[in-house]
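Annual report, structural modelling task.

Input specification for the adenosine monophosphate complex:
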Amino acid sequence: MSLERFAAACEAVAATTRKTEKVRIMADYLRSLDEDDRPRAALYLTARAFPQHEERTVAVGGSLAWQAVSRLARIDSERLAEVYRRHGDLGGAAEEVLARLPGSQLSLADVEAAFRTLAQSRGPALKVERLEALLARAGPLGAKYLIKILTGDLRIGLKESLVEEALAQAFAVPRHDVQRANMLLGDIAATARLAAAGKLSEAQLRLMHPVGFMLASPADSAEDLMEAFPGGAWIEDKYDGIRAQAHKGGSEVKLFSRTLDEIVEFHELIPLIRALPGDFILDGEIVGWRDGRPLPFTQLQKRLGRKQPDLWLPLEVPVAFVAFDVIYHQGSVLFDEPWSRRRERLESLFGNTLEPRLQLSRAVWGSGADAAQRALEAALARGNEGIMAKAADAPYTPGRRGRYWLKLKRPMATLDVVVTAVEYGHGKRHGVLSDYTFAVRDGDRLVNIGKAYSGLTDAEIAQMTEYFKQHTIDDQGFRRTVEPSVVLEVAFNNIQRSNRHESGYALRFPRILRLRPDKPVAAIDTLERVAELFKKQARPEDR
Ligand code: AMP
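The model returned the following structure:
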């Protein structure tokens, strides 16, 4: 029953565009629940199956959910694609195609148990089977919202901050207290429990529980970067690795990733971090590191996803932990201290450690665009990917992207490519062909190398959609193979070897910069140029 009520509350939230009204509906709903269901509902309202700090994930993405829905509704993928295009959301499509299901008898406790079972189920076939069974018991409306939770977005205009606000309203406590507790716990369910019990002040920063990471905003140029800091800023190298939060309490040490999952691949760092004095939480980057220089990210990547210790890999791709902030030290939470004070602490904590695999980020004071430009060039010459500028008085703002930290990266290479296939987009782009697969030239052949959401304007996308419809070679429902005639300029962060595409390479974070109607398909970039760019990003000795 309670899944139906959850879904009904979501529908009511979706039906109004007014934020105050959304919050009121959620507050009433959350207040009406019992102690066990309230934390579950708060969590599901943020479109998460498990609290952020838990490592568990359901690992049911759009495509498994798609299969489960089409099996349960006994319709083929093409028909589902048609309905999906009308809704722009698989949850909405599921409600329509599953309309004949009886209403749901599921409680939120049943949903919680089912998510745990799904998380433990290994292999896509078993997951699809179990999800199908769950959806069958969820009823059309319940299925709609279960899918939205599993795909990570309810699409009812409810951000986590509004759920926090609703909790504050429901239990007449200051919003700031709810936000603070949620930030510290990284767990909206636990926050809901404390808010209802009037115990928000009990939320403590806890060692071995990851906290949200402070994020940086991008700058386009050295001028742009330093305009934000007229009085000057601390300029650090920007290391190209994996963000990591290092917790140490007594002899226990854990590393957490930006997604707040535990990082287990870099065993050799643990005893080194353990040897630093005191209890702390450090923020930093794990980088591939050899002979006093960073290794390209593509090297570091070889170590990701290997859960079992490997004897040789740490020798082949050695790493270092580069610390750039400290947010907890010897009992003190340091969020509100200015950056410069935290830096002093960090320096004293590192003392004179001679271990090359533990480093402090390089930070120099600078003001003006010239200083930033020089710092950028020096950072690139050291093999890093750019610079960060940080305000000396910046607090640490977990989970937020602000103007206290700005980043400036190396100018990127671009490639001219041709579109070979297109897909319908998501959300407001569900009715237009906005996801493009593109290729480079290999002799007479075209070989795919990447896929990107369109960075074009809405008007351009609408125009291209019409164009692609008329130049389709093969219509597969949600995807169309098209005549290779549209040339694009794409930017990317780097190139990886990959067998996902027939070129044998994949672009990391590709972005479409513009259409190149001036460029004939015969003049697009070649596979040789890709191979050259790939080599260039590796260090000379890795070639
Ligand atoms: P981006 O991932 O491009 O949004 O850039 C932000 C990321 O840069 C952070 O999440 C860190 O992983 C990374 N980073 C590298 N060096 C630093 C540094 N010195 N200070 C802060 N972040 C850094």
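The CA atoms of residues 336 and 395 lie 5 Å apart.
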